[in-house]
Amino acid sequence: MGQVRGAIYNLARYKQPVDFSGLQFERGITPTDIDGAVEFGGRLFIFFELKFRGAAMSKGQRLYYERLCGARVDEAKVAVIVAHHSVPAEEQIDAASAIVSEYFWGGCWRFPAGIVTLRSAIEKIRRSADGFAKVIPFIVMSPPDARLRTQSDFEW
């Protein structure tokens, strides 16, 4: 029987912490980890973060993703999705069913209208990137940084 793509094959290595403290650079720059990424034919790249319910991305990680989305190469499109879960630490997280809390697409942070799973959000962004869906934005103020953000859902 073949291996299942996307499954964890070496749980001990997967749980092994990585210490980035020796990789500090000017202005306090340090590496960030990426929980997941998918690529579709070199024309769409989607990165995602899984956070425990209520946990937020750090300012540095958010800035990294915003800049990554702005640094498009060869007209490829880039999106970032932040999804949350409430799975206890001793249980495996089903990434596909994590609930999206926000995503960066089209140059700004957006909030899904309603409950959207990570799998569903990836599929919706793929269709949007292919021109099959239209994104409808609504501007809202979002604490704590009070920057303008866009709230949107997809219109089919």
Question: Can you put this structure into words, describing what you see?
Answer:
By secondary structure, this protein is of the alpha/beta class. It has one domain (30-155). Helix content is 18%, strand content 33%. It is built from three helices and seven strands. It has helices at residues 11-14, 59-70, 118-129, and strands at residues 36-40, 44-52, 77-85, 99-105, 108-111, 134-142, 147-155. Strands 1-2-3-4-5-7-6 form a seven-stranded mixed sheet, with helices on both faces. Strand 6 and strand 7 (147-155) form a beta hairpin. The chain is globular.
Keywords, separated by commas or semicolons:
156 residues; alpha/beta; 7 strands
Write the SSE topology:
Elements: H1 11-14, E1 36-40, E2 44-52, H2 59-70, E3 77-85, E4 99-105, E5 108-111, H3 118-129, E6 134-142, E7 147-155
Parallel strand pairs: 2-3, 5-7
Antiparallel strand pairs: 1-2, 3-4, 4-5, 6-7
What form results from the Cα inertia axes?
globular
Determine the mean pLDDT.
Answer: 80
**Largest sheet data:** 7 strands, mixed
N-to-C order of helices and strands: HEEHEEEHEE
How many distinct domains? 1
Question: In whole angstroms, how far apart are the ends?
Answer: 39 Å
**Oligomeric category:** single chain
- Note poorly predicted spans: 134-149
Strand line-up across the major sheet: 1-2-3-4-5-7-6
**Radius of gyration, Cα only, in angstroms?**
17 Å
Assess the beta-strand content as a share of residues.
25-35%
State the share of residues found in helices, binned by percent.
10-25%
Structure summary, number of beta strands: 7
- Total of DSSP H or I helical runs spanning 4+ residues: 3
Question: How does the helix and strand content classify structurally?
Answer: alpha/beta
